[in-house]
Amino acid sequence: QVQLVESGGGLVQAGGSLRLSCAASGGTFSSYVMGWFRQAPGKEREFVVTIGRTGGNIHLADSAKGRFTISRDNAKNTVSLQMNSLKPEDTAVYYCAGGLRYGMSPREYDYWGQGTQVTVSS
Question: What angle do CA 60, 65, 71 make, to 5 degrees?
């Protein structure tokens, strides 16, 4: 059973940056496609970015392009999300997810972290 634990959320002013991290345990990390999703109050969980097993095959949501960067370290079983130029509309709970299939739907992912709150003030 894979366990994912996110960290790095917090409160930041618009235009600022945050770096989220996700630590995995209990499985073969390099076997999993990893992704980040987010969910704002009253809204459905939405795709942010995904990264392939070896660090390639990165796909970003349009809202994240040019501002967010994903990376993974298979030796350390971690995946990170660098978020720059943050906007108030980025405010959400951010979830790390892992799965065996590459995709942008939450249904493609089998394992989820507990989420970390990101709040961007205007």
Answer: 55
Exposure string of 38-56, with b = 16+ CB inside 10 Å and e = fewer, is beeeeeebebbbbbebeee
pLDDT by 10s per residue, the chain, length 122: 899 999 999 999 999 999 999 999 998 999 999 999 999 999 999 999 999 999 999 999 999 999 999 999 999 999 999 999 999 999 999 999 999 999 999 999 999 999 999 999 99
